[in-house]
């Protein structure tokens, strides 16, 4: 059976014979765009030191990827549906690879942020294309199994990012964490042409560019607000972004309701299953990305693991995702998605609740059970939701369906890092002020230490350096004791902040679990 370049895969007689090889290419593409964020968490200290990044610079190095990624997915998904889903995947990989090369060559914060933004544009093409090609290539009977493997890959990437970055940083600089994307992207491009069938909508009218641009406006402004407000204060920029996001959303909904062929039929959100699935995806990644943000910091700074060892210690999460994915493939057809998704979210809540027991005496063993439970929860809950979201869209809108799923994921993840990161920073600062009493630390040094856990340990290290060069042994002993007490105070304050932040995250996810359970239809309605 020969495939013509412009022939939609849906027109073929019978399933595409090399569909499982094609899935491997799609999962490889997914792997690098998720790893692009998780790898940065362990490369950030090296990058900060080399480029002299401020905390604001570092935040935008991380989130410069997120804003275009979240904002552009819906429009680019629709364009891929009309013209070529495989073409969108390949072009996205080219753009992503080019941004990675640029990121490895720049030597300023502005250059890194710009390179990350280019990578975000590439990711906005790749992510919806992977799901739309999956849905177009696999028959409905096999689609759930393929989505399980797609979800498991995302879970693997969450843990693999720090592991790969840590291995590279042992002998190379932070630029190597950008360059590792290039050969993987090249391999995925070759695989796309060799193994992924060409696909586009069999019937697709004119693209609703006005609706698409309104989606870019309100989504981009919302993500910018989520980043700017909690981290840098509700200044004029954050408030303006909030206004633009609100007005843009209202305009987007009004336009889409009146347009004969909207880029996204917003009436779909009136369907309880569709709305509940999107809410579950957003809330789950709020919890997962937020927890990942502070767990990697705790492992590196408080427990003292290097980047590679940090990645190794996140592997139980990845392994558990595969277990949860296998379970959902068995349980969902028998119990229905309402049960598996609700159970997964309840387990995620339990994982965060266990992290509330973290204190200054906690070792890595105290994190294993929460990581395993969280991984199982991801595998259980996310695959059925993604399958339900994709199943709500006709063949002509599979790219839009993938974009909706991925936008929910990205908005949830951004909100998790911003919200839980803000709670973490505030709690750490408050606890450190209490813990540092009696250390004799000057107010200016305390203020610096309160900026982040890394800054706190840097202040303690600086005091230790003063002790090593003290004028007298007595003065050296006093400074050495002050450095030890300061380091203990920083570790204790951050551990308490992790426990407090986990409590907030568990409360949010618990409320979300109840809402999602109420929204999702039972098995009777699913079949009806």
Automatic annotation (TrEMBL):
Domain Major facilitator superfamily (MFS) profile: start-end pairs: 22-524
Keywords, alphabetical: Antibiotic resistance, Cell membrane, Membrane, Transmembrane, Transmembrane helix, Transport
Localization terms from the record: Cell membrane
PROSITE patterns recorded: MFS
Coiled coil: none
Domain of life: Bacteria
Pfam families per record: MFS_1 (PF07690)
Membrane topology summary: Multi-pass membrane protein
The keyword Glycosyltransferase belongs to this UniProt entry's keyword annotation: no
Cross-referenced PANTHER family: EXPORT PROTEIN, MAJOR FACILITATOR SUPERFAMILY MULTIDRUG TRANSPORTER MFSC
Name assigned to this protein: MFS transporter
Species assigned in the record: Streptomyces ficellus
């Amino acid at each position: 059976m020969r495939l013509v370049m412009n022939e939609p895969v849906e027109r073929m007689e019978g399933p595409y014979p090399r569909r499982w090889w094609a899935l491997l290419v799609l999962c490889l593409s997914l792997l690098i765009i998720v790893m692009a964020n998780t790898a940065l968490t362990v490369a950030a200290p090296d990058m900060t030191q080399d480029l002299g990044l401020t905390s604001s610079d570092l935040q935008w190095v991380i989130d410069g990827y997120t804003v275009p990624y979240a904002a552009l997915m819906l429009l680019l998904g629709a364009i891929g549906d009309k013209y070529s889903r495989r073409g969108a995947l390949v072009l996205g990989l080219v753009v992503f690879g080019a941004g990675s090369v640029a990121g490895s060559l720049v030597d300023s914060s502005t250059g890194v942020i710009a390179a990350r933004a280019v990578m975000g544009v590439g990711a906005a093409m790749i992510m919806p294309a992977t799901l739309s090609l999956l849905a177009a290539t696999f028959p409905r009977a096999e689609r759930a199994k393929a989505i399980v493997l797609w979800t498991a890959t995302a879970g693997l990437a969450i843990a693999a990012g720090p592991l790969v970055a840590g291995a590279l940083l042992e002998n190379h600089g932070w630029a190597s964490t950008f360059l590792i994307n290039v050969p993987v992207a090249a391999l995925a491009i070759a695989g796309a042409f060799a193994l992924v069938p060409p696909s586009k909508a069999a019937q697709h009218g004119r693209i609703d560019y006005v609706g698409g641009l309104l989606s870019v406006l309100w989504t981009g402004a919302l993500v910018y607000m989520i980043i700017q407000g909690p981290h840098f204060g509700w200044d004029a920029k954050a408030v303006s972004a909030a206004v633009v996001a609100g007005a843009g959303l209202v305009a987007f909904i009004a336009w889409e309701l009146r347009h004969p062929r909207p880029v996204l039929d917003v009436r779909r959100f009136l369907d309880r299953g569709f709305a509940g699935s999107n809410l579950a995806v957003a809330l789950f990644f709020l919890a997962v990305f937020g927890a990942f943000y502070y767990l990697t910091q705790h492992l590196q700074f408080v427990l003292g693991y290097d980047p590679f060892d940090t990645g190794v210690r996140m592997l139980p999460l990845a392994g558990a995702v595969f277990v949860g994915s296998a379970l959902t493939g068995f349980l969902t057809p028998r119990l229905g998605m309402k049960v598996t998704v609700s159970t997964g979210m309840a387990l995620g809540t339990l994982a965060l609740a266990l992290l509330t027991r973290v204190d200054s005496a906690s070792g890595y063993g105290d994190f294993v059970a929460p990581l395993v439970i969280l991984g199982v929860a991801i595998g259980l809950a996310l695959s059925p939701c993604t399958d339900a979201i994709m199943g709500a869209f006709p063949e002509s809108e599979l790219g839009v369906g993938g974009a909706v799923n991925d936008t929910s994921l990205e908005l949830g993840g951004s909100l998790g890092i911003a919200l839980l990161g803000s709670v973490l920073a505030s709690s750490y600062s408050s606890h450190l002020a209490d813990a540092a009493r009696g250390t004799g630390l000057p107010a200016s040094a305390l203020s610096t230490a309160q900026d982040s856990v890394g800054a706190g340990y840097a202040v303690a290290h600086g005091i230790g350096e003063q002790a090593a060069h003290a004028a007298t042994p007595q003065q050296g002993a006093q400074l050495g004791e002050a450095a030890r007490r300061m380091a203990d105070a920083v570790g204790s304050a951050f551990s308490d902040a992790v426990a407090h932040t986990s409590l907030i995250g568990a409360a949010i996810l618990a409320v979300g679990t109840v809402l999602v359970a109420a929204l999702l239809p039972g098995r009777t309605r699913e079949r009806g």
